[in-house]
Amino acid sequence: MKVKLLALLIVSVFSAGAYAISDISIGPFFGMNMPLANKDAKSGTMIGLQAKYSPISFFAVGAHYQGRKYGDPSEEFFYGTDTKDGGSVTSLGLDAYLGKTSGTGVNFYLMGSLGTYKWKRENQGEISKTTYSFGPGLEIVLPMNLGVEGRAMFDIAPTGESGSWKSLLWFVGVNYHIGLGPM
Q: Which alpha helices (DSSP H) does the chain contain, by range?
């Protein structure tokens, strides 16, 4: 009986402590995507939604949804200009964060992501790939549980024998925090 009571006491203490240091945040973001060395698309806009769970102050996991719109590229030929549809990309992914990821004040972290990449363009088939992203981020969390976040990411979508599509993504977002971890 004493062992069960001691085990119950330890579990309840750690459960309350786990809630006190954990942080859950969710929020929208808006930004730009810039293809690098990809003549099939021009820079465009990006919107999305992200959620993040930080069980401890220096590590977090999360998920995101992104919708990107590419600009229409054009090429000059002797008979005139040829314009293609830049298309749109949707992405769902899982994220991992290292660095200060919870609590009020300035939070600086490094982020890595693994996700899906679906590129739809007019008069062409849908392209579906796995994408890898990484980069730094900074979030300033205010005492009222709101955070303003900025992030830059290098996005790579391998294409097989022809190499990969690379993009530079940057965005600004607003997050609402529940739990807020250690202050």
A: 2-21
Instruction: Give the up-direction half-sphere exposure of residue 56: CA atoms within 13 A in the CB hemisphere.
Output: 5
Helix (H, G, I), strand (E, B) or coil at 20: helix
| Calpha distance 121→107 (Å, rounded) | 38
Encode pLDDT of 72-95 as tens digits. 776 666 666 666 777 888 999 999
- Which amino acid, residue 41? A
Give the list of residues 6+ apart from residue 56 with CB closer than 8 angstroms, or none.
21, 22
Q: Residue 183's pLDDT band (boundaries 50, 70, 90)? A: very low
For residues 51 and 147, give the distance between their C-alpha atoms in angstroms, rounded to a whole number: 13
The CA-CA-CA angle for residues 88, 94, 100, to 5°, reads 120
pTM of the model: 0.78
- What's the start-to-end Cα distance of the chain, in Å? 38
The C-alpha atoms of residue 21 and residue 77 are separated, in whole angstroms, by 61
95, 66 in Cβ contact below 8 A?
no
Please give the Cα distance from 125 to 111 (Å, whole number). Answer: 31
Q: Looking at this protein, which amino acid is placed at residue 180?
A: L
